[in-house]
Specification:
Chains A, B, C, D: Keywords: Isomerase, Manganese, Metal-binding. Chains A, B, C, D: Pfam families: AP_endonuc_2. Chains A, B, C, D: This is Sugar isomerase. Chains A, B, C, D: GO terms for molecular function: isomerase activity; metal ion binding. 4 copies of one chain form a homotetramer. Chain A is α/β, with parallel strands linked by helices and 423 residues long. Chain A has a single domain, classed as Divalent-metal-dependent TIM barrel enzymes (TIM Barrel), CATH 3.20.20. Chain A has helices at 5-29, 33-41, 71-85, 103-112, 145-165, 186-202, 229-239, 258-267, 293-308, 330-350, 353-361, 365-377, 381-390, 397-403, 406-414, and strands at 47-48, 56-57, 60-61, 90-92, 116-117, 120-121, 169-172, 177-178, 209-213, 223-224, 243-248, 271-276, 318-321. The mean pLDDT of chain A is 96. Chains in contact: A-B, A-C, A-D, B-C, B-D, C-D. At the B-C interface, helix 6, helix 7, helix 8, helix 9 and helix 11 of B face helix 6, helix 7, helix 8, helix 9 and helix 11 of C.
């Protein structure tokens, strides 16, 4: 299904009066409001192809009606989100869950719907039916060269799919690791991984980037080959200038200061990508901003600073939502995640950077704290709404989604028991 | 398949000389050795019916050959373990994964193989195909009474199955909770759960026990209705004298002092059951003793003390292994887990309790530490071997398992692609 | 030093126009605004006597000028905070750091300054110079009855001081525990503690409350006798109706769902007191709201619900700030903490409880999330300012504090090297 | 006081018969026993000058009798430990707690007692009385160049002291960081730190090494400038070939896989130093091996592998105990720590590396686990005793320490209320 612009306009019209009053008030208080609206209006976050279906845990998965069962339907779902939010103009494809059998056709479909192809994602953490070797004991790190070769070949194939679709980057997330002390030799695993990555890197087109994700645990529960940003960074430096580290918010040990890692990577120009989600315990993959919105704001503070002060030429990171949606309608969930990301971004843009720097240089800690909190405590709903409105999106996207009865229409189209590929 | 006693005797005979020498030496050093061998020889740990197949994570599951696909085959697998270790004479059944369609027949099969029926486990964390209401938003805590009634009825049914099989207890583990702040009202959820549990408790035969498990997170990642031992204990006290708390080693927040919880519960006579596994990060469900064997020893120190000094009449806890086996042959894994448990138990029995008490009363911390560590550093392999040998088990069960080529025989019997119910 | 009302009025007058405009706008959007302002205006948080000096870590302590070196000066400092914020009308006394040598005189001083005496705090975690027995190996839990008797006597003395001053409650925080496995016997320690507490409880006037604090670690790093709310609750139930659990935000293991604990305690009428601070790693004792303001908001959501729906007759908890102030002027720090607490409280009061309940009953998770976040994202600065203004306090207390140059005046009065008792 | 060799021989003689029998038995079972005894006999761990006094927490410190109050007495204490254990032939000096006013004299004293000077430690986390600028807001990272200069100068001075004493390395541990979000700019802090370190590095003699310690938190509770090994490694690479990372076991977030970090650093030849202690919650600084002896064993497994397989030319790490001793006699505590370290080392040396490699290459996980656990479960007390005995040390050092009544003699010499510099 597609949402018509007129439908959105109709819905907006009822909210416009209030919105404009709020906007006027806000602009009186914040001189750089126009600029902030502009930044938000131009901001887009990629949606992964596996986020449109029911995610689950090892204890089970609860489906819902109208799940997209083809890649085309997934792209349609993203277009629905994008039409409402004007902030989700790209899909991040997962292979082999979403192999584009007809790349040209898919590309055309996506283009018609205004959707681009962001970073490609390979998968060497599951066995596929037709696969010769198993990844039970690792892929790029495996002790057996045949397994490594198979995993390398898969990654090259994913790059090739990406080239056909117009993507410009590959994200490698490895589940490789061990569950039991003694199971693997850390050094051998590291060196095998590095050498496998070198082969993949060699296949990378010159205008592509390679993002190396890290994770301390899960699905392996004793060690993960790329356990932290230090290891990812070490690998990226060894590979070459097209390799970067990718930060996934959920991939950290308890209490990690993630914003500090972000700052360090940007200082060195090494932050390539960013996966958004939220969590309380581990890689919980909850919707963005539901547990620690202040941490997200502090991270955006570093991102804003890093993008505005960039001697090391850090590229604009590839932004993606990587949450799992078990209890909410995934489309509502993604809309709420987008809102949470943009809320944090807008608040970070409100920080008075000059005053902050001055307080920092004087070690006036109370003032520095107040500057951050004043920005954080500002209600930026109107900024987001205005950014969307200017692009033709909905002032209140969740409200619009419900008023337009999208889910029921999708159920009508696709049935109650359709099922998406993915976790 | 079944292992013959003669086969074990043959395998033992080659190891006997060394073993007897070791035993002689050990008995010179430890005066109470006979007593310890006796305790270990009489110790048994239940095997859950879901531990015989390939467990997995949300990222996937790697199967293996010869998985048991019926309840009968699962009981046979446990009998194999028991024949080798003489320490696994019971199965803990999970309903509905392993509904005994013919309870009498199953009971007879089990009896023939020397296997009893330990605590029954209900499941209200997954939806079954024929189920009227979904547990997507909880079961015993659900806002809708119809869902609660269905979950209560299921638990009663599980009790009935258990009565038919000769079990004497029900373990209730609830996944109930929430992923998002605001999703549920904590008080309402608690009170619904208590009232549901009361209905289940009312159905309990007078010689049964009810074990209430707790867990801080997973599969819900914001809150769990029974998040800690304090909540479980509160519920158990409200229910009555047949209700107890069950401790699963993996169900704790980082750094929890579990042995302290064990001691507190036993002080009040409230420790009903115990699920063994090991973990580094969360509920990793690794084989017992692979990450924190010293913690396991400290826990057994409390268990031994609690069983030997028992004014509050704590029952002997129901012991069960609750690990997930993704990378090892599950039977080898369970044998290794049993060895790890008995290793910790035997070491705890070696602690000089009088000397320890005396050091504690004088606050001679260095001595107290030394007493524990001397016991822990003792090699108790021979004690375990002797306990098994006396019961007709294998001196070296893993070696025996491999020499007898059990897995290949199971594959021959059941095929490469058989598949067990479970996680 | 004391701040005059006219000085505050002068400072307010410059901010009044903007403030009134903001207030008008806010009242248009929120129908129950008056009510919320009222609640905030009547809200007070106790300041502990040890929070006015430089706190530190084991690595050292950095002093600052104008520290209060007598109890009178500490009360004066709190009066400064209260004059500005109108939310800190009580002191929580720590014995023996702040023994009132002349209780009548101190009481009169405090009364003149509008300061009351909230919960008394005992200290059996440090040795005092004239003390007969050492608390090196514990106090209420000690293996030696003489030590326990001394600790019990100290607590009784603290109650007596409190009676003289008009306090109505005693907070017992025990550092008792162990650093090394084997050091103490958990059961004996628990039973000694319970029996000591019973003696203290017996000395409690009938209109007093006893608050039992819990903490998982520090200063003992293996075990703490009262490690969690479950243990505190067990002790309180054993003591009787005047005993309650006290929650200190920093006293939890990583990732603990504190708001859930708060809800459980209030469900049973057992939440007696509340210590505010913030932390990222452990008991970091940072100013309130600097790390996890959303968690604080969720906690207040439970407190508001619990106070508005109170069949178990939970008393209004004793509120206290318990933060350590190493880098900021402690008075500024406490003012910022008060603002953070009231911010969370005001936002929690903005939650549409009826809409939330309705969403919860329908398991409309996305709506429930939105209702919480809408409240949280509202800027409540104006509500706090108005609540203060109506009571004669400062619209912007930090600004007032700086404009009035309080710290320099205190330095002039007390010198650069005065030093307060405390941690 | 000094312990005479004859005294040790006398004490050993009573234990010799049993010891030799145990040794004979062990040598029958382990062919490479002689080699292992040799390695242990040649192993030494440095004792820091601050470990001989009573350490404490922010809540207080409990002294004990006979504390060394001069550097000479500290060296004497280490000599006592070394005479008993023959494994502590070096002191690691902390400046300014232990400034050698007469370097030549101190050097001679130490030499006479057989004690060398290991890594020097600087201190820019506390203010000293005569200091011009405060480190309240950092040292090498400070926003004010004057403060940085002062901290750099201090480090150069520490190097100079070290040169005079014959030390060959400097350990830099920085407390620099922040307690409050916004307090410092991460990038500026990092770059200031790097540039300060460069100045210190330039002062380093060509045969010296620089060790950069990392720590995630404490005493700063929001951010630490060198928060993890990745940051330390980045700095070391920037400085040059004499710079290395130093691992302190307590300086990690919950659940960190430290052995994996050790392996990664050794793979790159970047592990310079190692601080031993144990902990359950944070940087608890408990005696080695009391909480997680299996983790220590796994770490030694990596160290042994890294030292035996060393293409990247990792230097032999500088070993030091860094524990704090609040409840035990510090000398007993250090002896127990040494025993725990050597126990882990000896067990790691017992691992059958060839069998392990073979199991790893076949992904025979159960065997790999068994190989590690067989080594870990071996009682190596006799190996340690024999290594000590051959060097003239005590078969049972704690027993000897008590029989020789060392503490009481120290109290006689130094009094009950002597007090050491340090934390």
């Amino acid at each position: 299904m597609q949402i018509k612009n007129t439908a959105i306009n109709d819905l907006n019209s009822g909210l416009l009066l209030d919105h404009e009053e709020n906007l006027k008030l806000l602009s009186k208080k914040h001189q750089n409001l126009e600029q902030i609206i502009d930044v938000i209006a131009n901001y887009n976050i990629a949606i992964p192809s596996w986020a449109l279906g029911a995610g689950g845990t090892r204890f089970g998965k609860f489906g819902f009606g109208g799940e997209p069962s083809t890649l085309e339907q997934k792209i349609e779902d993203i277009a629905v989100i994008n039409t409402l939010t004007k902030s989700a103009n790209a899909i991040s494809l997962h292979i082999p869950w979403d192999i584009p059998k007809d790349p040209e056709g898919i590309k055309a479909t996506a283009e018609k719907l205004g959707i681009q192809f962001d970073a490609m994602n390979s998968n060497t953490f599951q066995d596929q039916e037709d696969q010769e070797y198993s990844y039970k004991f690792g892929s790029l790190c495996h002790t057996d060269k045949s397994v490594r070769d198979q995993a390398v070949a898969h990654n090259k194939e994913v790059i090739d799919y990406g080239v056909a679709l117009g993507s410009k980057s590959l994200t490698v997330w490895l589940a490789d690791g061990s569950n039991f002390p003694g199971q693997l030799n850390f050094r051998r695993a590291f060196e095998n991984t590095l050498s496998s990555l070198k082969e993949i890197y060699a296949h990378l087109p010159s205008d592509w980037k390679l993002f190396i994700e890290y994770k301390p645990y899960e699905p392996n529960f004793y060690s993960m080959v790329i356990q932290d940003w230090g290891t990812s960074h070490m690998l990226a430096k060894d590979l070459g200038e097209q390799a970067y580290t990718l930060v996934d918010l959920g991939h950290h040990l308890p209490n990690t200061n993630i914003e500090h890692i972000v700052a360090t990577l940007m200082t060195r120009g090494m932050l390539g990508g960013f996966h958004f989600n939220d969590s309380k315990y581990g890689d919980d993959d909850l919707s963005v901003g539901v547990i620690k919105p202040y941490q997200l704001f502090l991270i955006f503070n570093e991102l804003v600073f890093g993008m505005q002060n960039n001697p090391a030429n850090n590229p604009i990171p590839a932004w993606m939502i990587d949450a799992s949606h078990n209890l909410k309608d995934p489309l509502e969930d993604l809309i709420q995640s987008i809102e949470a990301i943009e809320t944090a971004y807008a608040k970070a843009l409100l920080i008075d950077q000059k005053a902050l720097e001055s307080a920092q240089l004087k070690n006036d800690v109370a003032s520095a704290q107040r500057i951050l909190q004043d920005a954080f405590n500002t209600d930026v709903k109107t900024i987001l709404a205005e950014a969307r409105r200017r692009n033709g999106g909905a002032i209140d996207p969740i409200l619009a989604y419900r008023k337009l009865d999208v889910r029921n229409q999708l159920i009508k189209e696709r049935g109650m028991n359709s099922s998406a590929t993915g976790l």
